[in-house]
Amino acid sequence: MQRRGALFGMPGGSGGRKMAAGDIGELLVPHMPTIRVPRSGDRVYKNECAFSYDSPNSEGGLYVCMNTFLAFGREHVERHFRKTGQSVYMHLKRHVREKVRGASGGALPKRRNSKIFLDLDTDDDLNSDDYEYEDEAKLVIFPDHYEIALPNIEELPALVTIACDAVLSSKSPYRKQDPDTWENELPVSKYANNLTQLDNGVRIPPSGWKCARCDLRENLWLNLTDGSVLCGKWFFDSSGGNGHALEHYRDMGYPLAVKLGTITPDGADVYSFQEEEPVLDPHLAKHLAHFGIDMLHMHGTENGLQDNDIKPRVSEWEVIQESGTKLKPMYGPGYTGLKNLGNSCYLSSVMQAIFSIPEFQRAYVGNLPRIFDYSPLDPTQDFNTQMTKLGHGLLSGQYSKPPVKSELIEQVMKEEHKPQQNGISPRMFKAFVSKSHPEFSSNRQQDAQEFFLHLVNLVERNRIGSENPSDVFRFLVEERIQCCQTRKVRYTERVDYLMQLPVAMEAATNKDELIAYELTRREAEANRRPLPELVRAKIPFSACLQAFSEPENVDDFWSSALQAKSAGVKTSRFASFPEYLVVQIKKFTFGLDWVPKKFDVSIDMPDLLDINHLRARGLQPGEEELPDISPPIVIPDDSKDRLMNQLIDPSDIDESSVMQLAEMGFPLEACRKAVYFTGNMGAEVAFNWIIVHMEEPDFAEPLTMPGYGGAASAGASVFGASGLDNQPPEEVVAIITSMGFQRNQAIQALRATNNNLERALDWIFSHPEFEEDSDFVIEMENNANANIISEAKPEGPRVKDGSGTYELFAFISHMGTSTMSGHYICHIKKEGRWVIYNDHKVCASERPPKDLGYMYFYRRIPS
């Protein structure tokens, strides 16, 4: 409260109409019912605009609505006022000025820390010794822009004073709000500042680590007090261990440990046994240096570090990031970076690639006015709004401007600095797209391929009208399964969004070098010597393509011709070719101990790709189809009655069973259906259902039940069209008409908002000019008739078939030993040259490492 009191002693700003003291109370009286004090659970946004990346650091500052606590930049606050009628906003502005110089030329010491009260990141480009910050807050009343400087405790009503104080003292909206929400920001350990470190002479070698108690060489943790290296438990990070690190803590009480193999210049995984959660250690570099580890020269590996005293090796970190070359920064539209929020590089890399595709640019940024105008009352919780905001931030060039010397000189003369944007922070976007997802909502590193599919799922569920930009990735795969005993075949089709290429290690062209390197490496580890120069397997792309097209055995194949299990083989071909082909190199696998591994290989990926020879041919002359008979479902006797009598609501599906099945690699929607149709009897019974139905064409389609219209709409996924083209559910229409709205108005609102009741009501209130017209009635009748027809003859998956000839335009690379650690960056070809996107840094690429990529993006070459 002492700091807030100092705030209320600040002078008011300029730019609006200031009020005389006697008029303030009278002016606020009509607006008092709309001013709220934030309650527990309210999210207060005071650092970022809901529609843009404006903040209190921006030239126009930020306006926080005193009723909804949403924040808006100067360009968007009028829209919110017109839409909601909310008139009172708190305007926040941070000023950055050059420090006053003393007689000797040095900056005078800062006198008032109370000038800073906003919880904002400082500009890393500014030297704190030369610049100082001052924060300003005031109330602004629309539409006349009356300004009330804060303070005015004597004149302001008590409710307004309390509300202002609560807004300014509120915590980040991204912190945990309830038990079902995952923490996005790791807490700083309370033991970090005064951590005791024993002076026992322990030095950690660069490789050859093993647990001091059981000799395990994976999932090892370094205790930051005494330097003990011990194994973790399996639930820390989904890898194996015997729990000796935890036992050591219980014996000795040393609270903090860091996972070996995750240490990079950007940080590491730190766990607090006392606090029982992952934490941040702001002094990690110093704590590691105590044991001889120079954090700034480390690259995370699972069983070794590159130490500062060891002969440098050319690792994938140096090659992929193009270290050692002077990269020229690039600015302007399409060259905006994304700040790393802590292991968010997987998201940044995927989104940079996505918004380099014209169809996504048009769908979101091209429709920006319409999407923003029709956004719901809380735009922070709307997918299309946040996608449009991110796309505009990346493509507008507004947040990627080069420093201009003349402007800098002018700013210095005015004693005020306008900080240059150094990339944008995707915090609001990440918080929305990852909510309710146990992995993406965490602060851990994730698989870029899994996030890509998760994003496609969200695009499908929130498609804008008939436009669906993710259609450019969609293609059909024809799977041919042959019974080895009867030689009969079955052809099925399924939808997919990326091509997964296996790594054909047996086809390496440098096998002799690899064998010699492996022997030398093991000897160096055993003797704790520096590792030899890395030898990377060189794999021909043609061998990977060949491995993709070869037949594979089908485990537990049930032959409908034999009415029994038999041997079967499966081959896959393209029934259609997508407009944009995403190729994933299957570099990640699991060792015998279930610890994730990565193939560190070099594959000569082509700039021009022709896969027309993989076109599906369908049933061939002389082939005989397997009978269309489903195998029997085996249900435990004690569960038969429960299954026959139980019909569960889709919203009551056992999500734990769903996640167990999803972790086995089955599509999420298929797992949901399996659990639903087996009556929540557990993962084992649901697994049997999956085995029986996995060859069906709609295996991965979303769960759709006639009696649950709303649930079916909410459950639309990447493998099925959403309900925008269809007649809205009658029960939802009835709810809206019961409120006094016209039926046609309710139907049009639901269609415009993907059958979302809350958004439909927002749409109705934002379209008071709606008038009933005959054309709309006829259109709705036609759509209803079309729905009846479609029930008789289902529409096939949406595909954009064409030639199978492609050109490489982007690729995402991963550095590290598994998807749970490391770093992602993206290379994109723009205007004829390659550009590297490494978090917030965007530079012209000199040596794009196309042979080390993980995901490749190809565009079709028109024939």
UniProtKB/TrEMBL annotation:
What does the record give as the active site? Answer: 345 (nucleophile), 823 (proton acceptor)
Q: Where is the UBP-type domain?
A: 187-295
Offer an example of a GO molecular function term for this protein: cysteine-type deubiquitinase activity
Identify the residues that the record assigns to the UBA domain, covering every copy: 652-693, 727-767
Task: Name the reaction it catalyses.
Answer: Thiol-dependent hydrolysis of ester, thioester, amide, peptide and isopeptide bonds formed by the C-terminal Gly of ubiquitin (a 76-residue protein attached to proteins as an intracellular targeting signal)
General function of this protein: Deubiquitinating enzyme that removes conjugated ubiquitin from specific proteins to regulate different cellular processes.
The entry's family comment says:
Belongs to the peptidase C19 family.
Annotated protein name in UniProt: Ubiquitin carboxyl-terminal hydrolase
- Name the source organism: Pan troglodytes
| Lineage, uppermost ranks | Eukaryota, Metazoa, Chordata, Craniata, Vertebrata
